[in-house]
Amino acid sequence: MSKQPILIAEDDADDRYLLQTAFSETGYAEQIDFVENGIELFNYLEKIYTGSNMEMKALPGFILLDLNMPKKDGREVLKELKQHPVFRKIPVIVFTTTKNEIEIKRCYELGANSYVVKPISFDALLKVVENIRSFWFQTASIPVS
Description:
Number of domains: 1
Order of helices and strands: EHEHEEEHEHEH
Number of strands: 7
Shape: globular
Number of helices: 5
CATH superfamily: Response regulator
Radius of gyration: 14 Å
CATH architecture: 3-Layer(aba) Sandwich
CATH topology: Rossmann fold
Helix content: 40-55%
Distance between the termini: 17 Å
Strand content: 15-25%
CATH class: Alpha Beta
């Protein structure tokens, strides 16, 4: 059985590299796609889901979403995703350096499925990635369409 792709919205090149490496080292060999801002994220999703013929390809298994991105930040993206009739089904994990309680509450109010503060060490990142993969691909039940 093929795993669903993962979509990661992250503007920092070093963080993208670390995430790619962490997913690879924890055994995730399937497709991981990166976008650098919210506009690219919606362009990516629109290419998967074409409203004209209602043909839907595999949506991401989940989206890792950085809050602080250029052009359209994570908060705007989260709000728009959760208002979309199809994209709102995609689990969104806010993955950011922001530890502010007000920000965490705001993200959950906007529809975040989870909020994870980026770990400081690579070893901790490996554990977080494994836990996220395990939960969203093995434990949680989410609708396919």
